[in-house]
Amino acid sequence: MSFEVINKVLTPEEVRQLIPVPEHLKVIKMKRDEEIRKVLSGEDSRFILIIGPCSAHDPDAVLTYIERLAKVQEQVKDKLILVPRVYTNKPRTTGEGYKGLMHQPNPLETPNVTEGIKIMRKMQLKVLESTHLTAADEMLYPSNLGYVSDLLSYIAVGARSVENQKHRLTASGIDVAVGLKNPTSGDIGVMLNSVKAAQISHEIIHEGHEVKTSGNPFAHAILRGAVNQYGRNIPNYHYEDLRYVSKKYEERGLQNPSVIVDCNHANSMKQYREQPRIAHEVLRNMNYSESIRKLIKGLMIESYLVEGTQPVTGSVFGQSITDGCLGWDASEKLIYEIASQV
Predict the structure, then answer these.
(1) Could you tell me how far CA 214 lies from the centroid of its own chain?
(2) What is the helix, strand, coil percentage profile of the chain, to 5?
(3) What mean pLDDT value characterizes the chain?
(4) Which of 55, 54, 160, 51 is nearest to 107 (CA)?
(5) Which of 33, 36, 47, 21 is nearest to 336 (CA)?
(6) Residue among 287, 282, 290 at smallest CA distance from 262
(7) Cβ contact 216:269 at 8 Å
């Protein structure tokens, strides 16, 4: 066994110094962070919509998409908080395939993590600077969080990572909202165990230091559906599923009970055009149950400029090279429909 050294990577602190966040943008981010926290605590009745590409492989297309999103945000600001998905690391089930912008700044070239880290940070900063929207990203690797943590208002822990101790304990030291997905098996107990772990304090190693985390009271659950032992997708956004999760949340006595429903992945059986139907069903369920209404704080939607997906070698501007996404027209229509119902 051996590890071939390719390059010495800059530390998160060094990268933050190299590509700093201007003070006026820090203020905007702090305001957005607080708005999202207030939704999760129930102080703000608005609805969170985490929406954007499956993976952010092209910074120019991502920025074009979010500039459009920012215009819509202004129209729905009294009802919705739009959080653009800017996912720069991608989990791969078998370890094969495109692993995200941080690994491959150019999907057609060999990996270059050193350059990818800089491009990743510059993209997140450009999004904030140009649109005043702060983004969501997945914490696929806790050791990489520091490269962009001061630019994000929402962090997701994926289905394959949610049982990992490092992810859960790192989440407990993050000062923005962290959503923890149910594992691919769909085990709700595992998901709520992870929420509990993220809400309490721990002593861990972080960025080369022994630290004590504060505990994150805004750690919460994301329902993304499951896959059973036969490889079949099992949705968990239906009325009975939401009532069950509400009951389990109450039994655990967790802080700020909150659920975001992921309308794609196993909930849609990766049929991206099903996302509007799923979103509308969740909204209807909220009208049938007060406990569901209090629990559901938002939705996740995979959306881009052009609907569908293309191969990594494709050249369509603003179309996903990973999971299929709704196109812009359908996405814009759905945002206004959601705003009219919450």
Answers:
(1) 22
(2) 40, 20, 40
(3) 95
(4) 55
(5) 47
(6) 282
(7) no
- Give the percent of the chain with pLDDT over 90: 86
Neighbours of 126 (CB within 10 A): 16
Q: Which residues touch 36 (CB under 8 Å, ≥6 apart)?
A: 48, 81, 83, 153, 154, 176, 177, 218
Confidence of residue 1 (pLDDT cuts 50, 70, 90): low
Hey, what are 335's tokens?
Answer: 């945002």
Tokens (6 digits) for 297: 């704080």
Distances (CA, A) of 199 to 20, 71, 178, 205, 221: 29, 35, 10, 18, 12
Q: Enter the tokens of residue 93.
A: 């089930």
Asked whether the beta carbons of 90 and 108 are under 8 A apart, the reply is no
The pair of three-digit structure tokens given for residue 289, joined into one six-digit string: 């149950």
Q: How many CB atoms lie within 10 A of CB 251?
A: 9
Q: How far apart are CA 286 and CA 279, in angstroms?
A: 11
Q: What is the set of domains in the chain, with CATH numbers?
A: 12-341 (3.20.20.70)
